[in-house]
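hi! just following up on the protien thing from before. the input was this:
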Amino acid sequence: MERNERSGSESGTESMAKSWCIQFCIGPNPWMARYIYGLMFLITNLLAWVVRDYSHSALTDMERLKGCKGEKDCLGGQGVLRVSLGCFTFYIAMFLSTVGTSKLHERRDLWHSGWWSAKIFLWIALMLLPFFIPSTFIQLYGEIAHFGAGVFLLIQLISVISFITWLNECCQSDKYADRCHIYVMLIATTAYVICIVGIIMMYIWYAPYPSCLLNIFFITWTLVLLQLMTSVSLHPKVNAGFLTPGLMGLYVVFICWCAIRSEPPEESCNRKEAATKADWLTIISFIIAVIAMVIATFSTGIDSKSFQFRKDETQAEDDVPYGYGFFHFVFATGTMYFAMLLIGWNSHHTMRKWTIDVGWTSAWVRIVNEWVATCVYIWMLVAPIVWKSRQAVAST
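and the predicted 3d structure came back as:
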């Protein structure tokens, strides 16, 4: 009897394992599919980093990479762009084949959530193909990737602001207003304290001398933007409270910190050691940056509702859980953005090992992103008032 029970339990566990394996490998599951696409995106980014830092000897033997004239750093940048082009092509192909999918169990839904053997083979083939393309075309793709990376930053920005405004509206609703009042004040106060402390620390770390005019301008202007967002949010006609400007202040201060950190290590106002070898802090920062990049791309890709014009539509049971086309489009632009981070937004820029997003171009991209974030946030607060006033004038 015991043997029969053991054999029955073993067969049950084996059948359960097989069923999970079949569901993972074959069965169409859109929720599981997004994690697989995210894993593929992570592997691609790691491959691009390996190509940049550790494969110079292998790439120099390829005759089609003569456009870099034998310079290792340029060669590493071209390798990153080639990996990025392959991944971009894959996600664009997925975008074109799944855009407009609205119902489950359609052919496009089955293609998005299943057929993993075919898609992995296609992904590998597209990753290898760019290494046989002339360097002139790769340089052209590098120029286009600047635009694609900017599109990704804009999509990510809108997604972050939409989440902050949704959280504020949820806390101010009649259903949760009394319950969330204390938590809102606590979160807003904490956010403002962190912003002020962060600005003070940036003055201490990155503006130690009066001659550091550029860093002083960046930090001071960030403080001005924080005050501006708070003033607009507390205006009687807007009345958005302290929560949204506090959270946006965290986002803006973080971008300013990243921008100053992206300045070259040789900069005298930047108290970072210009070491030739990577230390443990640089390696940890690199790993955190890669993980954060993948998480940001993943979370933005499934947030297609923030970009819908009609958000009050009820979702049926057979509707897709997220926009497949938008999901793949975000990953395609995210591939371009990560390539720009690895090459410092310049394929001929010298990048040390275990570094990411370093250089004056990267710093200015961050600063412009900070300014655009503030403008978009203020416009989202003011736009309803402007539209109402225009409608009132038109009706009279």
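The chain is about 70% helix and 0% strand.
The longest helix spans residues 135-172.
cheers
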